[in-house]
Amino acid sequence: xxxxxxxxxxxxxxxxxxxxxxxxxxxxxxxxxxxxxxxxxxxxxxxxxxxxxxxxxxxxxxxxxxxxxxxxxxxxxxxxxxxxxxxxxxxxxxxxxxxxxxxxxxxxxxxxxxxxxxxxxxxxxxxxxxxxxxxxxxxxxxxxxxxxxxxxxxxxxxxxxxxxxxxxxxx
Length: 171
What we know:
Strands 1-2-3-4-5 form a five-stranded mixed sheet. It has helices at residues 5-13, 15-22, 32-43, 48-51, 82-98, 123-140, 160-164, and strands at residues 53-57, 60-66, 71-75, 105-110, 115-119. 29% of the residues are buried. Helix 1 (5-13) runs antiparallel to helix 5 (82-98). The radius of gyration is 17 Å and the shape is globular. Strand 4 (105-110) and strand 5 (115-119) form a beta hairpin. It is α+β, with helices and mostly antiparallel strands and 171 residues long. The chain has one domain (5-164): Alpha-Beta Complex (Lambda Exonuclease, Chain A). The protein starts with a helix and ends in a 7-residue tail after the last helix.
């Protein structure tokens, strides 16, 4: 199994979402919020396409990589899931290291908020990434979907209808 940045992101957000996504139940294509995020990615930094490159390695796909300065730029619409974004970016840096590209740093960019956040990868993070990778593998190989855990982010999740189909909406 190839672990991707999306797996790392979903692991931080919701193990149920991780399992559903990994087992071929993909609701993202129907989500307006996901579409808005793609528009932000495509339109906020049009000059970057000529300066930086989109890089794919071992199942990960980074938004922009500045090879000269060894910086991965990851663009996000909102910072509501900043921990998940940070771990996704750390995982990208880790994969780059595993392929001999050392000294890589990262920048999370939230253009709609006009905010950036530098991200570095520590030795503790590297150990945590190895543990998370094992945990991701265990979660997605389970025969049954993890139980629903009600969180504040559920209402904006593309899997909301799937998870809450059997419950009337709260008023």
